[in-house]
Structure formats: structure tokens, C-alpha cells
Write a structure and sequence with these properties.
The complex is a heterodimer of chains A (324) and B (229). Chain A is an alpha+beta fold. Chain A starts with a strand and ends in a 10-residue tail after the last strand. Chain B has two domains: 75 residues, Gyrase A, domain 2, CATH 3.30.1360.40; 126 residues, Cyclophilin-like (Cyclophilin, Beta Barrel). In chain B, strands 5-12-9-10-7-6-13 form a seven-stranded mixed beta barrel. In chain B, strands 1-2-4-3 form a four-stranded antiparallel beta sheet, with helices on one face. In chain B, a hairpin with a 3-residue loop joins β3 and β4. The longest helix of chain B has 16 residues. Classes of the chains: A alpha+beta (324), B alpha+beta (229). At the A-B interface, β16, β19, β20 and α4 of A face β2, β3 and β4 of B.
Chain lengths: 324, 229
């Protein structure tokens, strides 16, 4: 029935696609930081794309299976070991019972996802299993996972052995790198910035600050000049929105962001590139480049279509139940 | 309210590639706010394909959508049709919610400050705070936090220069010409004048939020032991 967590870091949480419908009451959506890796993991094991996964970061995640399982590990900067033998990530892997699975977070990237065929079970709060740590809501008792936690898994929707060996090759994944260029749709409040401020934003490198979390990534760099007498009435915030408070240092709003805010938003990271932003570590540099909506949508659809079309490859070595 | 002929409002702005915002005005105004909720309701009643969530705020409505299903142009057209047919906000009924408050003392550590600042007695501040209906203009900041519009100018008070690291759930505060209630323990910079036992947020309840944007709130004083004139 269960998977037992052996070890993990401080930020491993249960996440489904998010808690929608309650933002009007001020309830953050939560859900995955890297929506692409999250969806890919679920799709590889034939889960519904809203199934609950474990999102984790350094140092990684270790667990024991008490039953045979089909798993997929996705994200950036990960190595997967089953009883000490290395397996590829971004691939569905059949795991026999009583195996020790160790996912190591390398020095690259931020977030990893573990999907298990059947999905993790947890009580739905306001329709979702996503964990909102700040509010202590959802997931497992509203908290991060700890060694010793026993997680229930739902009934798999697929024959575990025949579905092994599916893999999304690197060319189908976002082009993860340590210092990505992020495409941005400008606005909606670009009028709150001087031409000089906008030029600064689009020409300078910004370093992701250590003061970053699931709520937002603070960026440090040349201050962005605002038009000082602009007062702005609070409005709604989306994932990837780039708020610029009075100090001129931008903040990229992430999965746990508050629903409303009173700082002007110079632009919004495109849906296609938000996974790249999410996977940038503190100390990593980002650069912003403006694109129009049409090209942003084309990029998003091209990237996500591979997932929705289940455009995976089959890895000969790992087909069937030949492993782990 | 009929917008001026040359008004840029309502206007629809893109918010990245997966959302748009409809701005119905550029001020905190009850009539504009009512129209936001009416538009939200219209979009809930006749949902457009691909819409994921709606976030009403003071004078605008954020519409989140799946860019794999619908695009900005199509959705904008759908919304323009609703805007054209939006009924007058006059005569719209709002729900009234009564919230009992313990003012002053440990529950309201800033009551004396607000009184002194405005050359009033604490009792006068309480009477003024209780003396009107407050529309819930929007909710945000933390789950269930209502931004209540328009307390009397005579009890306005600036935010704390340095926010408290912990404001207890139920605390009733004033910031400028706004009042609000902290639904959960959280940091906060509003001047706290009282506290309520009324539960604003229970995540496991069928209806987790006691208030909804568009409601009207009336505060009622529970006792006045701590602040004789």
C-alpha cells in the first residue's frame, strides 16, 4: 500500500497541479514549481495529469517500496539509484518490492518530481492535494515530508511491467541550464516604468537571491527605474509575474505566490520558460528578453504538445520487468 | 457609474501568455468594484472554454486560462460581449455579515494610538468603526483576508513602520483608510484595534471562507471594559 520515506531534505512536499477556484478568497494555488517536469512524470506512469507527486530538492529523496511500483523521476540535476544501480531519469522504471530507491540531487537545478503509478493519496483540501507550507494546508498534514513518513499510493491505471522504459528524451524537455534567458511578455504595468527602467530590465543580468522560496524568486542586479509618482491599486497575480517593488529589484512570483499584490508588474515569464526560471538556483543568473504573446503561445504549445501526445521514446534496455 | 466618453476603461490587458486582466476603472470605488463582481459572475455563468480561474480585485478581474486551449484574442472577444451586456450595478443585493469584536486591551493594542492620533477617545473610535457597513472590496494577502473599504477618515491611521512578526488570527486592523481582519496568525503592519472569535477561514469546512468578495461587513462591539473615556 505504501512507500516509506527514508530520507529527504526540508522542502519535499506532495504536489498535484494546484488548488484552483479559491484565489478569489486569497488562497494561493500552490502546485509544482516546474509544471513541465511534474506533468511529464505523471504522463510517463499513465497517471492523470492532476495526480499527486512528490516535489523535492537537495539533497534528494530516498524511499523503500513495499510493493512492486512503476515510478518516474523528472526534473533538472537528478540521478536515480535502485539498490545501488543507476537508472535513467525522465523514464518510467519498474521497481520490485522491498527495493531501496535513492534519488540524488546533483549540483545542478532546483526541483525534482517523483510520480508513482496510481498517484500519492492524501486528503483533498479545497479540492486539491497540493501542499501550501506557509498555510499548513494540503499534502501530508500541511507539512514537508519527513523520514519515516508512510505514503499511500492509489491503484495504478496501467500494467506496471509493460509501461516501463518510456522516456522523454532531452530534446523534448525544456532546455534547462544554470543561467537561462527567460522570454517575457511585457506588462501589464510596463507604464509604471521609465524607458530607462525597461531598458535596464531587458539588458542586464539578474542573480537569483538566496531569499527565494516557493513563493517567489528575488532577483538582484541593476535597479529598475520606476516612474515615482505612479500609485498602483492592488490586483491579481499570476505565476511568473515579475513584480518590481520600490527598490527596483524584481521578484518572479512562483507557485505559492500570494493572490494579490500592489507592486507594478513589468512583465510575465512565458509559460514555456517558467520551468527554466524555477530550476535556477540561488546564485544563478537570468536574463529577460521580450517576446510577443503569439510567439510565447507557439513556444508553449510546441513544448507541451510532446507531453500531451505522449511523444515518448522507448528505452530498449529498460522495457518490461527486466530490472530493479 | 457611466464612464467618461474618453475613458480608457474598461480595458483588457494581457498578463503573460496565460492570463488577462479586465480593468473597469482606475480608482477604489464601490460602483466599479460591484461591476467587477458582476463580470466575474457573468463569466462563471457562461464560462469560456479554457478558463481556469478568476481573481476579482478592487477594480479589475484577472482571468487565468490554458494557452493550449484558448488564446487572448478569442477570450477578449468573449469578455467584450459580456461587458456590453453587463447590467447596471444599482440595486444589487449584498449579503450582510455581522462580526463581533473585542476592542482594545490585549486584543487591540493600537486602539489607544489610533484614538490619540485622531484626537478621539477610544470609545469614539469604536463607535465610528462600528458605525458603518464595509464592503469586502477584495480578498488577498493571506487566505481569507478581507480588504474592507472606507472607514471614516477620522479614524484613519498609517501602517506600522516595522510590521509585527505575529498578528493573531481574528485581529481587526486599520491601515490608512482601510480596515481588515487577519484570518490566520501572520506577520502584519496594520494598526490592531480589536479581535474577533468569528472564524474567517476553516480549510476543512465545506465552505472554508466565511466572507466572500462583495459581502458587506458590520462590526459589533462585544464589551468595552478596557477603555473608559
Amino acid at each position: 500500500m505504501t512507500i516509506e520515506i527514508l530520507a529527504t531534505g526540508p522542502a519535499a512536499t506532495i504536489q498535484d497541479s494546484g488548488r484552483f477556484g479559491y484565489q478569489r478568497y486569497g488562497m494561493p494555488v500552490s502546485g509544482p514549481m516546474d509544471a513541465f517536469a511534474f506533468q511529464a512524470a505523471n504522463i510517463l506512469v499513465d497517471n492523470d495529469t492532476n495526480s499527486a507527486t512528490i516535489e523535492f530538492t537537495a539533497p534528494g529523496l530516498s524511499f523503500v517500496t513495499t510493493k512492486p511500483r512503476l515510478i518516474a523521476v523528472t526534473g533538472y540535476g537528478l540521478r536515480l539509484f535502485i539498490n545501488g544501480i543507476e537508472f535513467p531519469v525522465w523514464m518510467s522504471v519498474f521497481v520490485r518490492k522491498n527495493r531501496e530507491v535513492h534519488i540524488e540531487k546533483t549540483s545542478e537545478g532546483m526541483w525534482g518530481y517523483l510520480a508513482v503509478a496510481g498517484g500519492f493519496r492524501a486528503k483533498r483540501i479545497m479540492g486539491s492535494r497540493a501542499t501550501y507550507l506557509r498555510g499548513g494546508i494540503g499534502g501530508l498534514e500541511g507539512r514537508a515530508l519527513l523520514a519515516g513518513d508512510l505514503l499511500k499510493v492509489g491503484k495504478p491505471g496501467v500494467d506496471l511491467t509493460t509501461a516501463a522504459g518510456r522516456t522523454f528524451l532531452p530534446e523534448t524537455r525544456p532546455s534547462y541550464n544554470a543561467s537561462p534567458t527567460l522570454r517575457v511578455v511585457m506588462g501589464p504595468q510596463q507604464d509604471s516604468f521609465s524607458p530607462k527602467g525597461i531598458e535596464t530590465f531587458l539588458s542586464q543580468d539578474y542573480t537569483i537571491s538566496t531569499q527565494s522560496d516557493r513563493m517567489g524568486y528575488r532577483c538582484e542586479g541593476t535597479p529598475i527605474e520606476t516612474i515615482s509618482d505612479q500609485s498602483f491599486i492592488s490586483d491579481g497575480i499570476v505565476n511568473g509575474a515579475i513584480q518590481v517593488p520600490a527598490g527596483g529589484q524584481p521578484i518572479i512570483m512562483m507557485a505559492d505566490h500570494q493572490t494579490t499584490g500592489g507592486y507594478p508588474k513589468i512583465g510575465v515569464v512565458t509559460s514555456a520558460d517558467l520551468p527554466l526560471a524555477a530550476q535556477t538556483q540561488p546564485g544563478g543568473r537570468v536574463r529577460f528578453v521580450a517576446v510577443n504573446i503569439d510567439s510565447a503561445v507557439i513556444a508553449y504549445r510546441a513544448r507541451w504538445q510532446a507531453l500531451l501526445d505522449r511523444n515518448w521514446s522507448l528505452h530498449e534496455t529498460f522495457l518490461g520487468n527486466m530490472q530493479a | 457609474m457611466v464612464p467618461a466618453f474618453d475613458s480608457p476603461y474598461p480595458r483588457i490587458l494581457s498578463v503573460g501568455d496565460a492570463a488577462l486582466t479586465i480593468e473597469l476603472g482606475n480608482s477604489i470605488d464601490l460602483a466599479i468594484n460591484r461591476r467587477v463582481f458582476m463580470l466575474e459572475q457573468a463569466l462563471q455563468t457562461t464560462p469560456a472554454k479554457g478558463v481556469i480561474d478568476l481573481v476579482p480585485t478592487y477594480r479589475s478581474l484577472l482571468v487565468l486560462f490554458d494557452p493550449g486551449i484558448v488564446d487572448f484574442q478569442t477570450l477578449s472577444q468573449h469578455i467584450h460581449n459580456h461587458l456590453r451586456d453587463l447590467p447596471d450595478a444599482q440595486g444589487q443585493q449584498s449579503r450582510e455579515v455581522i462580526i463581533p469584536v473585542h476592542y482594545g486591551g490585549e486584543d487591540g493594542p493600537d486602539l489607544a494610538f489610533v484614538a490619540e492620533l485622531n484626537h478621539l477617545t477610544p470609545r469614539e473610535v469604536i463607535l465610528m468603526h462600528c458605525g458603518q457597513l464595509y464592503p469586502v472590496y477584495m480578498m488577498g494577502f493571506t487566505p481569507g483576508f478581507p480588504y474592507l473599504g472606507g472607514p471614516e477618515e477620522r479614524i484613519a491611521a498609517p501602517r506600522l513602520a516595522s510590521p509585527r512578526t505575529l498578528v493573531k488570527a481574528g485581529s481587526v486592523g486599520i491601515a490608512g483608510q482601510q480596515t481588515g481582519i487577519y484570518p490566520i496568525d501572520s506577520p502584519g503592519g496594520w494598526r490592531i484595534i480589536g479581535r474577533t472569535d468569528f472564524v474567517l477561514f476553516d480549510p476543512e469546512a465545506d465552505q472554508p471562507f466565511a466572507l466572500s468578495p462583495g459581502d458587506l461587513v458590520r462590526f459589533v462591539p462585544l464589551h468595552e471594559d478596557h477603555h473608559d473615556d
